[in-house]
Every structure is written in C-alpha cells, then in structure tokens.
C-alpha cells in the first residue's frame, strides 16, 4: 500500500530546516572588521592585538562585540577532503584557537567567505561547499559570517544566500548571516528572511564625498554612500538591517567628518563595524567611536532607520525617532565653510509617515541634549542659533 505523507507535514519539515536563526541581531550588530585597514594582510598576532586594544580602550564596553576576519584568512587551497583551512603562515594555531581566544574575552568571532567559486581576493569561495563550510564554521565556533558576491556568474542572489542560510541553520549553531552583494539585487526586499544585515552599496572608502574609480567598479566616500540609496528605510527592523558598510572613522578624515559619518550611521541604524587600526587610534577617534550617547541612538530598540527631514543651502537635517517619544536630530553641514544655524523649533512639525510618528514642537517644550559634547543645551522654546563647522554636525536628542 502506498504511504501518503500529508502536505502540511512536508511543509512543516521544510520550514524547520529553512529559516534563519531569529533574534541574533535585535539591534544593529557592532564590532570590528579587518578589511578597511588591512585588506588581506592579517594574521593571528594582529587580531589578538586588536582584540586586546578594543577591550583596553573601552570599546568592548561600549558595545563592539564581533571581531570579523575579512578576506585573506584562509589558505589558497582546500585540504584533501575539500575543507577550508586557515592560512598556516598567518594563522599557525588555526581558527578554532583564535575563536577560543576571542570567546575567552567575552567577544564573538566572525569570518568572511563568498557565494562564488572564489572570494573577491581570489581565495576559495563556498560555491558547491556551502554545507561543508558551514559545518566547519560551527566546529570552529564562528558567530558571524560575512558572505560576499564575487565570481558568482549567473547565480540568483536570493537563492544563493538562502542556500548558505539553510547550511548555517542546519549546523545548529546560531550564526549571524551578513549579506554582502552590494545592493545589486535589492537585498532589502528579500534579506530579512535570509540574513540579519545586508550591504546596500559597493565598498566605502576613507573620504567624505569622493568616488574612487577602479575601472570596473568604484568605491565611495561617506556622503556618496548616503546618497547611493534612497527609499529603503522601511526595510530596516530589528534582526534585519540595511548595512551602509564598515566604518572609516579614524582612517584619515577630519574629526568633524568622522563625527558626521558616525552620526549618520547611527541615524540609519546601520551596523557599527569599526574598520580602523584600534591599536594606534587617536584619543579623538576613540572618543567618537565609544560615545555611548551616539551609540544609544544607533542601538535604540525601536530599530527605526532615520530620514532626511529637510535641506537648506549646505545644511541637511537628518532625524530618527527613538523610544519614549525622544528624537535624534543631526544638523549636518555638507559645505567646506562654516554654516550659521538658526532653527526655530516651533515652526517645525515632523511627520514620519512610514513609522507613524509625529513631532510637533509647538505642542510642548523639549529639552535639547548635545550628544557629542554630552551637555544639555537648552530647550525648544528658543530658536537654536549656533555655527556648525565645515563638514561637521550638531547632533542632538530632544525629549519632553
Ligand atoms: C568586497 C566587499 C568588501 C571586502 C572585499 C574583500 O569588495 O564588498 O567589503 O569584503 O570584497 O575582498
């Protein structure tokens, strides 16, 4: 007699094996990634030194948890069984040893690979090895996988990322999946069921407003990244973040530009992944990166991606609704000259129609807190008059 398996049973089984690990990134992930500063020139001593500096400089306490090794951590060839192996010269004690070290410090460990046959720097990619690689990551104690998009030929992006999602899920180890296909296939439309964050653009570079042309592709300064994407804020929510790329704070821009960059990433609820050499970072860089009031805006539990409320001459006002009816406002001066701000609160009503939030200054008095100087600077009764230096921000939180 033929056995008939009920359809609902089949659907339940499929559903159990094909999902992402929920709840791993209720707020935007925070950490450090090796690529922006070191590219493939990474090794065990460097990573251990970075972990130690992140802790001793208070950045772990500020919330930076994930230590992510980008491209170049692996050997050029897989072993005889097809397993990925760590580069034996760069990482002589292997990845499990390094992951154990990171975990022993109360932090989490991340690795990079790629959906194509090769990674972007030409190391072995995961195509055709997805389940085998996922099992290896789980065995080593990986907590975060950044999964890139080079050498993918005609692969369908959503399907390729779903394959890796299912491979990770099958290991039983909760691993964040960081989708990195540069926004080519509108990952904001499908990413939330597949991974926890998705890159929205090509690579960032360490300038405020430039494009660096590499022939077949460009890397982008901070403001270029900001303007490459519009109308995708509705896709961000807890466990599913638009990722504006690893930060360039501390990598050569002015302190004002770094403040603007960090403020915008906070307004966007973007993952905050440092990309600088923390071991020799300046006091000013550490102060920016560890500013708990700015980080609290990024990590606000509502998880709302802010928006540009207005622009006037070189001024842009970016706004993010926060819990308890507080709001973050970032007054950004895009110009290379100082900007004289005169902002009469009572003439402004801010309506976030997507997230159904309204801020009407004429209906009450709000206190104003400058989050970079960590000082209360008055109330919204009086117009705000100040000068914003070139390429800098005035970043405030208002609340009743
Ligand atoms: C791509 C990614 C970068 C980095 C490099 C590594 O360009 O977008 O973030 O991971 O690959 O090769």
Topology summary:
Elements: H1 7-17, E1 30-33, H2 35-38, H3 44-56, H4 59-62, E2 66-69, H5 94-104, E3 108-114, H6 130-140, E4 144-148, H7 157-171, E5 176-179, H8 187-190, E6 197-199, E7 211-213, E8 218-220, H9 222-228, E9 241-243, H10 255-267, E10 272-274, H11 283-289, H12 292-298, E11 307-312, E12 315-321, E13 327-333, E14 339-343, E15 349-352, E16 357-360, E17 367-370, E18 375-379, E19 384-388, E20 392-399
Parallel strand pairs: 1-2, 1-10, 2-3, 3-4, 4-5, 5-6, 6-9
Antiparallel strand pairs: 7-8, 11-12, 12-13, 13-20, 14-19, 15-16, 17-18, 17-20
Helix pairs in contact: 6-7, 10-11, 10-12
The chain binds alpha-D-galactopyranose.
For the structure shown, list the relevant keywords.
27% helix, 8-stranded parallel β-sheet, 20 strands, alpha/beta, Immunoglobulin-like, 400 residues, binds alpha-D-galactopyranose, TIM Barrel, 12 helices, globular, 6-stranded antiparallel β-sheet, 2 domains
Classify the helix fraction into a percent range.
Answer: 25-40%
Shape: globular
Please indicate the count of domains.
2
Structural class: alpha/beta
Q: What does the main sheet amount to?
A: 8 strands, parallel
Beginning-to-end CA distance, first to last residue: 72 Å
